[in-house]
């Protein structure tokens, strides 16, 4: 439990630090800050992708890797499993978390909805980094319709 609180605090401070110099950066400044957060998440995801699946057998299919993300990775990061995983069987996956821990504190009103991208960039990088380490090149985006629910879309990049 203490690990979760420490991670949430660290994440909040990373976001705050990147937006501290310019509280309302233009589109270019916001893109850079989001890219920095996503890059941090990518590196953490790479490290977790190297360490977590040691006990499991080699993944046979993409779907097995995505199930690993929804169960094992999510439990390691947020002490809970992802709520749902859906696919169109053509390389696009939707991962739904109905009470995303990094958004729970801001779920009290719709006024915070526009602030959510900066609280999701790290996690998008985390997912992309883990997938990269497991041999899957992907594009990960996140969307929020109602706080604290969050939907991550993973599109597999085919060569």
Task: Please explain how this structure is put together.
With 159 residues, the chain is of the alpha+beta class. 50% of the residues lie in helices and 14% in strands. It has 4 helices and 4 strands. Strands 1-2-4-3 form a 4-stranded antiparallel beta sheet, with helices on one face. Strand 1 and strand 2 (92-97) form a beta hairpin. Helix 1 packs antiparallel against helix 2 (27-51). The longest helix has 25 residues, at 27-51. The radius of gyration is 15 Å and the shape is globular. The protein starts with a helix and ends with a strand. The mean pLDDT is 87.
Outline:
Helix content is 50%, strand content 14%. It is of the alpha+beta class and 159 residues long.
Strand order of the largest sheet: 1-2-4-3
Q: Classify the secondary structure makeup into a structural class.
A: alpha+beta
Helix content: 40-55%
Unreliable segments (pLDDT under 50, ≥5 consecutive)? none
The total of helices stands at 4
Proportion in β-strands:
5-15%
Shape: globular
User: Would you count the extended β strands for me?
Assistant: 4
> Terminal Cα separation, in Å?
41 Å
Topology as a string of helices (H) and strands (E):
HHHEEHEE
Biggest sheet, in brief? 4 strands, antiparallel
Oligomer: single chain
Short descriptors:
4 helices; 159 residues; alpha+beta; four-stranded antiparallel β-sheet
Topology:
Blueprint: H1 2-20, H2 27-51, H3 62-78, E1 84-87, E2 92-97, H4 116-133, E3 138-143, E4 150-156
Antiparallel strand pairs: 1-2, 2-4, 3-4
Helix pairs in contact: 1-2, 2-4
């Amino acid at each position: 439990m203490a690990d979760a609180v420490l991670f949430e605090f660290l994440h909040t401070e990373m976001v705050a630090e990147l937006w501290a110099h310019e509280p309302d950066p233009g589109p270019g400044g916001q893109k850079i800050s989001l890219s920095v957060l996503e890059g941090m998440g990518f590196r953490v995801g790479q490290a977790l992708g190297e360490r977590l699946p040691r006990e499991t057998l080699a993944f046979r299919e993409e779907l097995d890797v995505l199930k690993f993300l929804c169960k094992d990775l999510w439990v390691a990061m947020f002490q809970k499993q992802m709520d749902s995983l859906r696919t169109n069987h053509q390389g696009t996956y939707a991962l739904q978390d109905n009470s995303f821990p990094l958004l729970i504190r801001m779920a009290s009103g719709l006024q915070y909805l526009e602030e959510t991208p900066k609280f999701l960039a790290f996690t998008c990088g985390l997912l992309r980094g883990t997938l990269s380490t497991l041999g899957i090149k992907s594009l990960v985006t996140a969307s929020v319709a109602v706080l604290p629910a969050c939907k991550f879309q993973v599109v597999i990049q085919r060569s």
